[in-house]
Amino acid sequence: MQPAAVLRDKINRNQITLGVLATDHLWPRLVEICKLARLDYLIVDCEHGPHDEALVAAVCQAGRLLGFPVLIRPISCAYDVVRRAIDMGPCGLLLPSVEQVRQLDMVRDAVFLPPRGRRRPGGWANHWLSDFQYATWKAEVEDNLVILPQIESLAGLECASAIAAHELVTAIAVGPYDLSAELGCCWQPDDERLQAALRRIRAAGRAAGKNMWMIGDGPTLVQRGYTFICIGDPSALLAQRLGQLATECLASGASAESEH
User: Fold this and answer.
1) What residues contact 170, with CB distance under 8 A and at least 6 apart?
2) Long-range contacts (CB closer than 8 Å, 24 or more residues apart) made by 114-120
């Protein structure tokens, strides 16, 4: 699982690492588009998106064939849900609303084979392997998985340090919208209550020697010192860019008319 290893290394070295979270629309060529755009990863949103399993597996397969990291956000951290997600063949998981360490213990059971976990492997994830010996599973898949627990609630915020320190965690993550709602400032991204919570989560990651995944406007987040960034949903980014182009064209047309 070389793409996951490359992604982990970039995250851990605090290099600018950019990706997208595909919620509204998903198709296999999106992987190629992300790679051509010089992004570093794609997350398939199965928590909120309407994506069926065959499509998700095909997108993960495209990532494997193109050498590009595709992650999945499952709908929960439940054992069966996570085990099924890993069978699709992703390079890792963005875990929604993690509030307790025991949730990560359950995820560990779902992604690791015995003796470290309870996974029963199968599906397209097997195609990452050169053989099916346990040592190969551990070295080529398990040790490279990118695991990102999202802090999205007050309970998760209180447990952020323990969550960040868990052995399974690659980097701590956040769901700023849901967290802002719990803090009473939905959706006011610059509210000091949310910003203080983000600083607390970031500090928890640093104390554990780990980076923090953040979603939002890429250039702004870079200016604020974030390096592991999701710039948004490709569909929303497309709509935004189309709107900008339409505005520019209309402005150019108005300018041309005034000159005549």
Assistant:
1) 8, 11, 12, 92, 145, 146, 147, 148, 210
2) 116/142, 118/79, 119/83, 119/86, 120/83
Is the confidence at residue 260, as pLDDT, over 70?
no
**Using one digit for the tens of pLDDT, what is the confidence trace for 130-152?**
999 999 999 999 999 999 999 99
Where on the phi/psi map is residue 11: left (φ > 0), alpha (ψ -120 to 50), or beta?
Answer: alpha
Each residue of 4-23: pLDDT tens digit? 999 999 999 999 999 999 99
Give which of 111, 125, 94 is closest to 212, Cα–Cα. Answer: 94
In a domain, 229, yes or no: yes
pLDDT for 234-252, tens place per residue?
999 999 999 999 999 999 9
**Helix 176-183 with 192-207: angle, nearest 10 deg:** 120
Number of domains forming the structure of the chain: 1
**Which of 193, 211, 95 has its CA nearest to residue 152?**
95
> How big is the chain, counted in residues?
260
> Which residues form the domain of 122?
2-234
CB 44 within 8 A of CB 22: yes
Tell whether 260 is covered by a domain.
no
